[in-house]
Amino acid sequence: MIYLDYAATTPLNRDVYEAYIKLLKNYFANADSAYSLGYQVSGLIEKSREHIASMLKIQPQEIIFTSCASEANNMAIKGACFQYSNRGKHIITTKIEHSSVDASFKQMAEVFGFEVDYLDVDNQGMIDLQVLENMIREDTILVSTMYVNNEIGSILPVSLIADIIHRKNPKTRYHVDMVQALGKIPINLKGIDLASFSAHKIYGLKGSGLLYKNHRTLLIPLITAGQQEYGLRGGTSDSAKDIVFAKTLRLALEAQQEHYDYVIELNQYLREELKKREAVFINSPKNASPYLLNFSVPHYKPEVLVHYLETSDIYLSARSACTSKKQDISHTLQATAINEEIGLSALRLSLSHLTQKEELKIFIKALDQALTEVKKQR
């Protein structure tokens, strides 16, 4: 099998798996139980929180365990909107966000009456910082952007964005979806109020996420119940997943630079090979994350190519997994004002330190074969 869809999910790290199984067997007690077994599990959760905080250079009480990054995004956006609605109901995001962010903003507008402004992007997937500054008002309570786009890999200057936001309106909160950045590029949370992360993008467990919430930011909880997660997310803790997140993150960060350097070489090889083919257009910017490479083959249906390559045991995607069932142009590519024929034929490769160069050679050969055997769409 040649797997080239690591942006959708990653295989579980063996060490993480073994630690998880041990936790399931030996530390199954409810972390909120008022006896020694519960205290033991609760203590392990707090140690995990402390280790994660140390690695991210934040405070333990600024970490909230969630079921996934989509939940973290919802918690950050809706929780902040409800908390600060007395200050105003103006919120800002971009036109290239993950579906969980995009849908949250639409719900805040359509159901709760918030006013949403959407930042345009250029053909590189970048926002205009001056436009952002001009867009921020006295009643702007939240701005939300990605760090690394999950389709074309563009990297937004989140530190600069944070500076602009807090200089223009110190009361405005800034949320960043950092899912495709964690474990791949350096993360600095200074100046950022809220940030979302996921374990299964860094060889950890599915159903495991984090929300960073700095101590200055308040949220209205979306799940009300007990005392869990500082009263911000009620319900029995999924203790084994919470505990093993620290190990997942440590393993990812320890090898981050080594993996990055290796993946850059893979990305450069792919770009060079794809550029040799006149039928292929590369959609990812040159300075994008090397872990993602979006390209198009106009007049070919991407889902047909995906299924053709699958017959050779090669797996990639036509778009983000959360919108993979759709067959129109992705909202990210549409926002970059890409040619419609190019946008409709987009494919996404995502790489890993597990990817072998020989696998990419086989992929290129299979792609060439597909372009000769698959019927073009006029």
TrEMBL record:
<keyword id="KW-0663">Pyridoxal phosphate</keyword>
<keyword id="KW-0408">Iron</keyword>
<dbReference type="GO" id="GO:0051536">
    <property type="term" value="F:iron-sulfur cluster binding"/>
</dbReference>
<keyword id="KW-0411">Iron-sulfur</keyword>
<protein>
    <recommendedName>
        <fullName>Aminotransferase class V domain-containing protein</fullName>
    </recommendedName>
</protein>
<dbReference type="GO" id="GO:0003824">
    <property type="term" value="F:catalytic activity"/>
</dbReference>
<dbReference type="InterPro" id="IPR015424">
    <property type="entry name" value="PyrdxlP-dep_Trfase"/>
</dbReference>
<comment type="similarity">
    <text>Belongs to the class-V pyridoxal-phosphate-dependent aminotransferase family. NifS/IscS subfamily.</text>
</comment>
<feature type="domain" description="Aminotransferase class V">
    <location>
        <begin position="2"/>
        <end position="362"/>
    </location>
</feature>
<dbReference type="InterPro" id="IPR016454">
    <property type="entry name" value="Cysteine_dSase"/>
</dbReference>
<dbReference type="InterPro" id="IPR000192">
    <property type="entry name" value="Aminotrans_V_dom"/>
</dbReference>
<dbReference type="InterPro" id="IPR020578">
    <property type="entry name" value="Aminotrans_V_PyrdxlP_BS"/>
</dbReference>
<dbReference type="InterPro" id="IPR015422">
    <property type="entry name" value="PyrdxlP-dep_Trfase_small"/>
</dbReference>
<dbReference type="Pfam" id="PF00266">
    <property type="entry name" value="Aminotran_5"/>
</dbReference>
<keyword id="KW-0479">Metal-binding</keyword>
<dbReference type="InterPro" id="IPR015421">
    <property type="entry name" value="PyrdxlP-dep_Trfase_major"/>
</dbReference>
<dbReference type="GO" id="GO:0046872">
    <property type="term" value="F:metal ion binding"/>
</dbReference>
